[in-house]
Amino acid sequence: MLRSSGALSSVKVVVSGGFGVGKTTFINTISEIDPLDTEAPISEVALRIDDTSCLPDKMTTTVALDFGRITLDPTLVLYLFGTPGQERFMSMWDDLSKGAIGAIVIADTRRIEDCFRTIEYFEQRYIPFLLAVNTFDGAARFDLGQIRDAVGVTADVPVVECDARERESVKDTLLALLTRVLSTHDALGRA
After folding, report:
1. What's the CATH superfamily of 9-190?
2. Using CA atoms, how far apart are residues 36 and 7, in angstroms rounded to an integer?
3. Fewer Cβ within 10 Å of end Cβ, the chain: N or C?
4. What digits encode the pLDDT tens for the residues 13-46?
5. Secondary element (H or E) of residue 101
6. pTM: predicted TM-score of the whole model, two decimal places
């Protein structure tokens, strides 16, 4: 877990969500190393399976994982693992989530229902998470309380707005997740 002794601590964070919600962009925006991604062109077969109606310019998709790293301060390094969004790749999620201290579930208000199975995944595994509502150009904006109600997460799950293209927004989202993880850890310690 996180140490306060001044020693370097590295932790794993999962970035997840549905197809095309901005997971690769989120990791690419914040990573201090050249991020690893497994982007592949969207095939004709995938076009018949995946709904790209809200994503007419999307030409590639993650087929295994995204990986990045960010040093938040001299004592804390986050390793970011992005999951593929399509259900057919969900078998990889257990490996990518193993050992994670928390997860960021990215949502797109144009397809809010796409985050339901992701939320359920982390709830069932008791992995602390937050919901990051990605601010796509031209997408409708909603009150975060309305989004919380729409997806049915409890009051202890943070719901934040995030622009996956903007470094400070991504950093703020990561810090909000760490706050959530620490509060969950503290609550368990008091129980």
Report:
1. P-loop containing nucleotide triphosphate hydrolases (3.40.50.300)
2. 27
3. C
4. 999 998 889 999 999 999 999 988 766 665 565 5
5. none
6. 0.84
